[in-house]
Amino acid sequence: MGKLVQRARGMLGSAQENSTLLLNVQAGRYHELNEVASRIWELLAQPIDEDDIVATLEAEYDVPAADCRDQVIAFLRELRERGMLEVV
């Protein structure tokens, strides 16, 4: 943790009612994010420290701190693996 991260270039998104639909232009793939993942995606609009993402979600959602951290780490790792996230 403690890295600055942001959305990768080439990602297009459209907010829906309770989700976000993303298009990875380079890979030609669509991804649908649930409400919490959509919130993380919003936070990734500008470079942000991973710890700040966790702190924001802990403040906004009723979730145990350890669970929040584990789930955020896993989600960010998945985004990186799919080429949707950059470490700055």
**What order do the helices and strands follow?**
EEEEHEHHE
Could you say which structural class the secondary elements and strand pairing correspond to?
A: alpha+beta
Strand-residue fraction? 25-35%
Radius of gyration: 12 Å
Q: Please summarize the sheet with the most strands.
A: 3 strands, antiparallel
As a percent range, the share of helical residues equals 40-55%
Q: What general form does the structure show?
A: globular
Record the strand order, biggest sheet.
5-1-6
Are there runs of 5+ residues with pLDDT below 50, and where? none
Number of helices: 3
Number of strands: 6
Distance between the termini: 13 Å
Q: Average pLDDT across residues?
A: 93
SSE topology:
Blueprint: E1 4-7, E2 11-15, E3 20-24, E4 29-33, H1 35-43, E5 48-49, H2 50-60, H3 65-81, E6 85-87
Antiparallel strand pairs: 1-5, 1-6, 2-3, 3-4
Which properties best describe this structure?
alpha+beta, 88 residues, three-stranded antiparallel sheet, single chain
